[in-house]
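We close this part of the discussion by returning to an individual protein. Part of our work consisted of pairing the sequence of a single chain with a tokenised description of its backbone. The amino acid sequence and the backbone structure tokens for this protein are reproduced below.
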Amino acid sequence: RLSDPDGADPDEISAVVRGSTSYHVTLRRRRRGGVTMDCTCPFVEEYAEPCKHLWAVIRAADHAGHPLLDD
């Protein structure tokens, strides 16, 4: 579930992805372009790669039309 599905903050997306455990996901627009992504799951920490929780939030935000993903 996106905490800001309507895009009130066009530069950030925060979400909690629930499964067997809840993970916090954040995407933020960088000042110089690009987006930083973070998830509290161990996969991101271990492999430094986007996890399924990040992809789930990206898909949900895209579906909701969040402005962070407009570019």
